[in-house]
């Protein structure tokens, strides 16, 4: 099974309670778990590889490992795999350089009428893209393969991205990056490493060419097919109760639970962690001091995505700061209201500089933006009150990263060093970049070969 190139925001995952005890009379009631007098042992499943996280990275690895005749068990907290696919909100290739002036520093949206960029501006953007390709991407050929940062770290990789862009004469490209790769952070302070990772050669080629999407227009079909192929190997609505990577020298042991079922023990020769490795996410892991020291460095942004239904409104509006550096929208802010093709329904994507964002804060941001638009007549007057949210997904933690000082101190060499130790491998955006194509490159270039070698698979 082949995965096509999509851009995906990975879902939140974290463990639940730590449970080193006998089990019996167990019943799962929502998020509550009850125990009674011990009477029996949980079910036991033996597999080659246990995979924590059924998002883009975990499912891709599971398919490849299954194709290599490995037995896998995918543990996913949500009721579906694949998380929420976040397509890049962009215009068709022929007009990808068109600017939509719709959001002012005063929080006043315009009517949203597309304003074509002057020919000289389009030429400047293309010239900047050529300079970026020739002088930057050719220099850092590993950018689409993972955070394979040189040691010692080049000073320019921890400079602010805007200064780096000025040094290499591609500043005219920054507004395009701000719109296409939503939301990577403030381009005036973002370390250059993350700016480069956000627009590697693969994505740059798509921006100035075309994107590869599902032929059905439904990226969910990709994961529906994966779920069919993996079958009972995928455990949905599953909470991790305990992980033991100490006592079993030949593998790992996980204790998991699903609503309405007795706890299950999964014994695996190897563990693949495919969730954002923030301490809040993996607090129930038996972390070593080295792992804890590494993962404690991570912070994250916030991203709230979904579908908003706005009665009486059927146009697309893109949020572009008219008076902000590089036309970045003011944050917190939505990328825009991008029509889905269904009446009154729009893709939304709210960016936050903090990873600690609630669902209600995400919805309130949409309402606030609609109120601003209503004040200038761009949307119906009651839009902020009539909007509903048929589907939403909170992507906290989103775009995990470290400080420029940590990059300078060789953080990524330290992050990649423990791969395979304690029978554990790590994958996902934190190790590759926040783009499914990059995660899949990381899997195929590093993770899957490492696991296959350790397990003696061809």
From TrEMBL:
Gene3D superfamilies attached to this UniProt entry: 1.10.405.20, 3.30.70.1990, FAD/NAD(P)-binding domain (3.50.50.60)
Q: What is this protein called?
A: Uncharacterized protein
Spell out where the chain crosses the membrane: none
Keywords of the record: Signal
Q: Name one Pfam family in it.
A: FAD_oxidored
> Where does the UniProt annotation place the signal sequence?
1-19
